[in-house]
Amino acid sequence: MHTKKFTILHSNDMHGDFLAEAGSGSGEMIGGLALLSGYINRVRSEEENVLYVIAGDMVQGSLIDSEYRGVSTIEIMNYLSPDVATLGNHELDYGLEHLLFLERMANFPIVNANLYIKKYHKRLMMPHVILKKAGFDILFIGIITEKVMDSIIRDTEIGSFISLEEARHEVGRICNAYKNSDIDLTVLLTHIGFESDRELARMLDPAWGVDIIIGGHSHTILDQPARENDILIVQAGVGTNQIGRFDITVDDDTNSITEWTWNLVPVCEKTAPPDQKLLAFIDSFRDVVDRKYKTLLCKFATTLTHPCREEESTLGNLVADIFAETATCDVMLMGSGAIRSKELGPAVTLGDFRACFPFDETLKRYTITGSQLKGIFSHIMRPDNRDGEGECYEVNGAVRAVYNDRKKMLESLGIHGEPVDEDRYYTLGLIGYHADNCEKNLNITREDLTALGGTKVIATSTVSVLEEYLQAHPNLNRHIEGRLVFRAS
After folding, report:
1. Strand ranges, E, within 197-335
2. Are 38 and 55 contained in the same domain?
3. Number of separate helices (H) and strands (E) present in the chain
4. Would you place residue 15 in the very low, low, confident or very high pLDDT band (cuts 50, 70, 90)?
C-alpha cells in the first residue's frame, strides 16, 4: 500500500470579508484575510502536502470590493495564493467581460465545467485542473449554481448546463476522460448549495471516483461532513471567521481515501498571528475607500437590522417602503439578498450605505391581477424557497400575507387592509434583476407580467433612489409588523 497524507484547507462565500472584527464579549479579533492568511501560512509551514481551495463567491459584499469592482479582491487572493478556485454566482456581478478580466488577473486556476458559449458549444472557463502533489494526481472540477444564469440572463450568447442532471453529466464526462491518467483523488468544487450538493452526490456513478465535494452558496455551518454515496460533503459557512480543514490519507493503489478528519477551524488571534504584510496591503485599499466614503449620509432613529433574508426585517421594511413610495405601487417585492449588511445605523456613512447596497439596478412597475399576485406570494413564501438557496423578498407596509407551512398554502393576502380580489388589478414594483428572472423566481412569465400594462421604468438607479431618500428624511425607523407571517400549523 502506497499512501500519502494531505491537508486541504477550504473557504467559500468570502464576499470581500477583508477585515477582522472584535468578537462579542472577549474583544478578540476574529476573521479577516490577514488572520486567515496567518493560519494558512502556519499550516503550510507545519504540514508537508497542503492545498488551499475556494468554492466560489470571492467577490461582492464589501465596500473595498465594490469600489474596485473585484480587482482588489483578486489581488488579495493572489497574495493568499489558493491552489484552485471555482466560480460563484457573485463572480458575475460586474458583468461577463469583467469576469474574464478578473480571471486573467488571477495567479491561480478558476475552474468551471458547466458554463458554456452556446453557439460554439465551448466551455467559457477551464473546466478542471489536475494538481500534482507528492507524486499524486488530484483532479478538481468546478460546478456552478443556476443562479449564475440569473446574473447573465441578458447575455444570450452564454448558456449553461445547470440542472443537477446536467451537472452530473459534465462531471461524468471529465471523470471518464481522465480515468487513464491514474487520478488518485477527485474533488468537486461546487457553488450550488449544501442540499443540492447532497442530491448531486447521490446521482454520481461511483465508478467515476468522486471522493469529496467542497461546496458553497448556502452558507452552511457543519459540525462534521455529510456523506452521500460514499462522497464526503463539506462547506465552511460564510465570510472569513472560519476555514474548513481536511486531513486525509490517500491510497495510490486504490485511488481512495483511507483515513480522514475534518474540522471547521475558527480564524482568530488564538489560531495564528495576522499576516502583517497582507494587512498593510489591504490597508492600502482601505485608506483610499475611507477617505472617499467616511462622510455622514444620514441618521436613523435607531439601528435597523437584517439578520436573515428568509424573514421580515426592519431594514428590509424600510427599503421596500422607500421603493414602493417611489414607484407608487400597491406591492413592492424587494430581494432580501440585495441587502448585504446585517445592520445599519443609527449613524450611516456613505461607506456604510454603499457596503449595504452594492447592487445598482432599475426599478420597474407592472400591472397584474389579484389572482396572479396570489400566485406570486404562494411561490415566494413556500417552505422550500426558505432553505438558504431560494430567492426571498421583503415587502412594503401595505402588504399582509400569511402562509401555512404545514398545509403548504397561502392562507391570506391583504393589500391596504383589504383582502386581495382575484379579479382586480394591482400595481407591482420589482427590481430589474427580479423582473428579468420572473418566471423562475416569481412563477409568472414575462408575457403575463407585461400583458396588462407593459413595463414602466420608474428609475434607472435604485442606489440613487435610496441615497436621495435617506438624505432627505432624517430619523427614519421601522418595526417588525407581520408583513410576512409563516404559520407552523
Report:
1. 212-214, 226-228, 231-234, 242-251, 256-266, 296-299, 304-305, 331-335
2. yes
3. 15, 30
4. confident
Q: Say if CB 329 and CB 365 are below 8 A apart.
A: yes
> What does the DSSP 8-state code read for residue 236?
-
Q: Domain containing 360: what range?
A: 294-487
* pLDDT averaged over every residue in the chain: 91
- The CATH number of residue 465's host domain is 3.90.780.10
Helix (H, G, I), strand (E, B) or coil at 216: coil
251 strand-pairing partners: 3, 256
How far is it, in rounded angstroms, from Cα 172 to Cα 208? 6
* φ and ψ at residue 192, rounded to 5 degrees: -130, 0
pLDDT at 171: 94
Q: Are 47 and 3 in contact (CB under 8 A)?
A: no
Q: Residue 42 is which amino acid?
A: R
pLDDT in tens, 424-481: 999 999 999 999 989 989 999 999 999 999 999 999 999 999 999 999 999 999 999 9
DSSP helix/strand/coil, 306: coil
Check: CB of residue 239 under 8 Å from CB of residue 14: yes
The number of folded domains in the chain is 2
Q: CA–CA separation, 69 vs 90, rounded Å?
A: 11
* Cβ neighbour number for residue 258 with a 10 Å cutoff: 11
Q: What is the DSSP string of 385-410?
A: GSSSSS--EEE-TTEEEEEETTTTEE
For 247, the grid coordinates are: 486531513
Helix (H) or strand (E) holding 62: none
Find residue 128's DSSP bridge partners.
141
Strand order from edge to edge, sheet including 456-459:
393-395, 331-335, 425-431, 363-369, 456-459
Specify whether the CB–CB gap between 268 and 29 falls below 8 A: yes
CATH of the domain at 138: 3.60.21.10
Q: Which three cell numbers stand for residue 164?
A: 443537477
Residues 6 or more apart whose Cβ sits within 8 Å of residue 373: 331, 413, 420, 426, 428
Give yes or no: residues 299 and 191 share one domain.
no
State the Cα–Cα distance between residues 136 and 138, nearest whole angstrom: 6
Least confident of 276-285, 366-375, 419-428, 460-469: 276-285
Q: Terminus-to-terminus CA distance in the chain, angstroms?
A: 57
Residue 464 is predicted with a pLDDT of 96
Amino acid identity, residue 218? S
Residues 253 and 304 in one domain: no
Distance CA 143, CA 157 (A): 19
- Rounded to 5°, angle at Cα 399 from 401 and 418: 90
Strands 256-266 vs 242-251: parallel, antiparallel or unpaired: antiparallel
Tell me the pLDDT band of 225, cut-offs 50, 70 and 90. Answer: very high
Q: Identify which of 89-93, 123-127, 262-266 has the greatest average pLDDT.
A: 262-266
